[in-house]
């Protein structure tokens, strides 16, 4: 799994939005899911692993979370608040002071409706 697919994930108290761009640059998945707060603790990690296997690519996950508690509860951040790095994906935080990947695409993810 050498090429990387890009996952933009927005976690809020009310919803989880996910957009995946495959290694070729084409959009392969767009999802609007219930809040991650009430989800099983392995739900998002399992979703990311499945997407990585379906795309046959390692994922670069750009995470925007309303609170650090949601991200940590889902295992996407370690105890120090840094994104986790696994064989299937690596997580980086999109936030103030950091260059955001594909700001236009992130707006589309936030604006998508169920």
What distinguishing features does this structure have?
25% helix, 114 residues, 32% strand, five-stranded mixed β-sheet, alpha/beta, globular, Nucleotidyltransferase, domain 5
Write up this protein.
- It is a single chain.
- This protein has 114 residues and is of the alpha/beta class.
- It has a single domain (4-111), classed as 2-Layer Sandwich (Nucleotidyltransferase, domain 5), CATH 3.30.420.
- It has helices spanning 43-55, 68-73, 103-111, and strands at 4-11, 15-21, 27-34, 58-65, 89-93.
Provide a quick synopsis of the model.
The chain is α/β, with parallel strands linked by helices. The protein has helices spanning 43-55, 68-73, 103-111, and strands at residues 4-11, 15-21, 27-34, 58-65, 89-93. The radius of gyration is 13 Å and the shape is globular.
């Amino acid at each position: 799994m050498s090429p990387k697919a890009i996952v933009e994930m927005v976690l809020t108290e009310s919803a989880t939005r996910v957009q995946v761009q495959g290694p070729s640059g084409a959009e392969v998945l767009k999802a609007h899911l219930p809040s991650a707060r009430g989800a099983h603790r392995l739900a998002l990690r399992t979703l990311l692993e499945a997407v990585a296997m379906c795309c046959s690519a390692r994922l670069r996950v750009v995470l925007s979370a309303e609170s650090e508690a949601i991200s940590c509860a889902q295992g996407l951040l370690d105890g120090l608040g840094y994104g986790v790095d696994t064989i299937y994906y690596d997580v980086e935080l999109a936030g103030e002071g950091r260059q955001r990947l594909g700001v236009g695409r992130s707006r589309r993810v936030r604006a998508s409706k169920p």
